[in-house]
Input
Amino acid sequence: MMPNITRGARMSGLMTYLAGEGRHNEHAEQHLVTGDSAIVTMYGYDQLDRATALQIARDLDEPRTRFGVEVLRTERATDPETGEVITAKVDANVWHCSLSLRAEEGQLSDEKWAAVAQDFVDEMGFTEASGKAPCRWVAVRHGLSENGNDHVHIAVSLVREDATKATTHNDFKRAQNVCRDLERKYGLEELESRGTGLGERGVKPAERERATRAGAVEVDAHRLERTVRAAAIASVDEGGFVRRLRLGGVLIRPRYAAGRDDVVAGYSVALRPA
Output
């Protein structure tokens, strides 16, 4: 089972997407399978329409709007003109994760997806199982993906009922570990990469679409990772590493140790814009 996590600023945008037709009209019979008990009791398991999705979004967002809590995260981007990596604080109060199976695994029942989703958010620390006030959340199912993968979407508001913020520290790694445990608990296919300690970052639909438009055989993130790994393996010193990256079309900037400007602790890298 593969988790794919994204962050956003608009719960209404996420919920209307999940209740809509999808990018390729692949969504069908969009409905809740589980979630915050009050929200599920109020709206049930019938097929979602836009109006219902917007009302659910308002209910999920209610603690944040009532208390006026801001949830920000730092995002990095590359200036296309200078190549400089810049940072900015952006609104990111919505936590969204899709849990998907390989097409060859077939489909789970709504009841099983509900159990998997409940265990997942419990282990991620979003519910009262954490010993803290719960976040409001729902799990939405809307049929198979374009590639035939059975999946469920989990939408979480990161402001808890008592106005505190849920932590997302190291959430990508924690989600991988939780999925590994759930694979064993529910008899799902275990990913070989997790069992051997290897892994590859997930590819987001937007990344795949950009690569397709550009006629590329791999997404930018995979190309960048491959280039950096190759340069590290082939280089015998730091200078050679930097030169190989630049020749490979990579922008590179040193990151200095805290309080120093003469000790390089690592590098920030990005592909050079076309």
Remarks:
- The mean pLDDT is 89.
- The CA atoms of residues 149 and 233 lie 36 Å apart.
- The longest helix spans residues 50-67.
- The beta strands are 2-8, 31-35, 72-78, 85-91, 94-100, 137-141, 151-157, 250-256, 264-271.
